[in-house]
Design goal:
InterPro entries: Flavoprotein-like_sf, FMN_Rdtase-like_dom. The chain is α/β, with parallel strands linked by helices. The chain is 36% helix and 19% strand. It is built from 5 helices and 6 strands; from the N terminus they run βαβαββαβαβα. Strands 1, 2, 3, 4, 5 and 6 form a 6-stranded mixed beta sheet that branches.
Length: 202
């Protein structure tokens, strides 16, 4: 079964700056490809995502293009760095724009995100990955995405340290394993949901 994935990198660094979140998302897309899902990576900061909670905030808003790609994909991976113990402001912006899905439904009354699977990737030099995953999981679930078991991957360095994920000599084995599990479980659940969608919402 052919599957597609979209990864959104919510780093604050515009292209072509190196980004640890970009590296982890590329590794995640490679793991998804090994499972049979072809993916695309977008860096959110490179686009004009206007503030708001609708699907189209008017002239110059790039969100409708990203939204179209997201709704065409079977799997969404949302990646964010840790900033002051929280997801980046761009990650929050994406979640706010996804709020529109609460009122957008198909002819069966289901949110347009029903049947789509989501995962989360987090990088940073301080603790807080689990806290951020919990926040992003809840937001994605609220707007209709389905979260498989263990559908997150992350790396956090030593507290008050100066080494970034992208500067490590090699990706730690545990991160590789966690990313592989995310990919396996996302693809498995996406295949099941393509075969049997959620029931009509009455």
């Amino acid at each position: 079964m052919s599957l597609t994935a979209l990864a959104l990198n919510c780093t604050l660094k515009p292209s072509p700056a190196d980004s640890s979140c970009d590296l982890l998302l590329k590794q995640t897309l490679a793991a998804l490809q090994e499972q049979g899902a072809q993916g695309e990576l977008l860096r959110v900061v490179d686009y004009n995502i206007k503030p708001g909670v609708t699907s189209d905030e008017g002239d110059g808003d790039d969100w409708p293009m990203i939204r179209q790609k997201m709704l065409a994909a079977d799997i969404l991976i949302l990646g964010t760095p840790v900033w002051l113990g929280h997801p980046s402001s761009l990650c929050q912006r994406v979640l706010e724009r996804l709020d529109a899905l609460l009122s957008e439904t198909d002819d069966q009354g289901r949110m347009l995100s029903y049947g789509k699977v989501a995962g989360v990737a987090v990088v940073g030099n301080e603790d807080g990955a689990h806290h951020i995953v919990a926040q992003v999981y809840q937001g994605l679930n609220d707007v209709g995405f389905t979260l498989p078991a263990n559908s997150c991957t992350y790396w956090v360095g030593e507290a008050m340290g100066s080494i970034d994920f992208k500067d490590l000599p090699a990706t730690p084995d545990k991160v590789v394993q966690t990313t592989r599990v995310l990919a396996q479980n996302c693809v498995h659940l996406a295949r099941l949901l393509k075969q049997q969608q959620y029931p009509a919402q009455k």
